[in-house]
Amino acid sequence: MRIHGVHDGSLYASEGRTVLVERDDETFERLGRVPLSRDLSSLVLAGPADRVVERLLGPVRTVNLWRLTDDDWLATVGYALYRSADCTRSWTRVRDLPDSSGTAGLLSTAICRHDGDLYLGEYPLAHDATPRILRSTDGGWSWATVLSVSGVRHIHSLTPDPHSGHIWVTTGDTDAASRIGYLRDDEFVVVGEGSQRWRAVEPVLTSDAIIWGMDSAYADHRRILKLPRSRIGAVRPEPDSLCPVDGPVYYADSFELDGDCWVVFSTAVEPGADSTGPAKQDYETAAVVVAASSATRFREWHELARFDRRRSPLERLYDGAPAVNAYVFLAASSGRGLFVNPYNTHTRNGEVLQITPEQFERLSAPTVG
Q: How many whole angstroms separate alpha carbon 10 and alpha carbon 17?
């Protein structure tokens, strides 16, 4: 199982292309099934042979879900974007994504809702592609280009900022293509760029700062960084270093507890070489979840969980076999705490683990940082 988010306090998730929603008793109910895309990778990885592929390689991300209302959903599979208006019973293919998109079409962090409209950031893998930011004003049925973002490989995330009213944008992957900025009047205002420090997937936006983890598999020093809002607009803004991390940081979330803001980040394990990096690359073997509170000004970090990546049967048979990343998906709720969902891990793979508000309250001494 893979969790995708929280809607009205309840989790929603998927198993393969089957959509799951949490019941009141915290079990999951099966709803509809997202259609297959017509591209070859989707047919192989998400089609009838998906269980065979998973046994040989491990689970491959092929589906993203976004629950807009009780009945309205968006989904991506391969190169296709789908829309449902009847709680996933039926789907309409509303947009084709770039041909070089990844197996799940785009990153789960690259669709957001802002001022009643939906925004989408494309994720092509071709080095000569120019990703676009799209907007839908009719709830996801039709899409138009807001702008093309030249000089970057793909869009990592689009995050609405409740404090400034902007949408924050992150891109990658080379030093020059690693940028963090925001949309203003349908233009990309770059706040920082030019090194792996500015390569991020999902930022957390607090009232006085932007916090992110470096999404770099090969940087010498990977860290969680904070840029105070007072430095936005500087010619060369310098972020503060908060915490070292072992691997590339992918996912983030935050929630309020007793008047304090908790921020949470998870790292990934990327066993394959990053094509934008040096020839020799090492990778960590475990994905980690870390958290900190505004009560300590995000200076005391706690390691909440650690999961070793699962090696596939093919990897154990011979070197050079295709290898699947390990992730930890996150979903936070102020009333329920944090949900942690390890994916392609040696233990607890596909399980949904809850860290309650009471457990966060008991956190005291930092274990990392």
A: 19
Average the pLDDT over 142-164 and give the result: 98
DSSP 183-220: EETTEEEEEEESSGGG--S--EE-SSEEEEE---SS-S
Q: How confident is the model at residue 48 (pLDDT cuts 50, 70, 90)?
A: low
Hunting for tokens 């996801």 — which residue is that? 140
Q: Sheet of 187-193: strands edge to edge?
A: 154-160, 167-172, 179-184, 187-193
Sketch the domain layout of the chain as residue ranges: 247-368
Is the model's pTM score more than 0.85?
Answer: yes
Cβ atoms of 333 and 255 within 8 Å: the answer is yes
Write the DSSP symbol of residue 230: G
Q: Which two tokens stand for residue 313?
A: 């049967």
pLDDT digits (tens, 9 = 90+) for 237-263: 999 999 999 999 999 999 999 999 999
User: What is the b/e burial string over 122-154, where b = at least 16 CB atoms within 10 angstroms of the residue's CB?
Assistant: bbbeeeebebbbbbbeebbeebeebeebeebbb
Average pLDDT, the chain: 93
Residue 295 CB burial class (10 angstroms; 0-12, 13-18, ≥19): middle
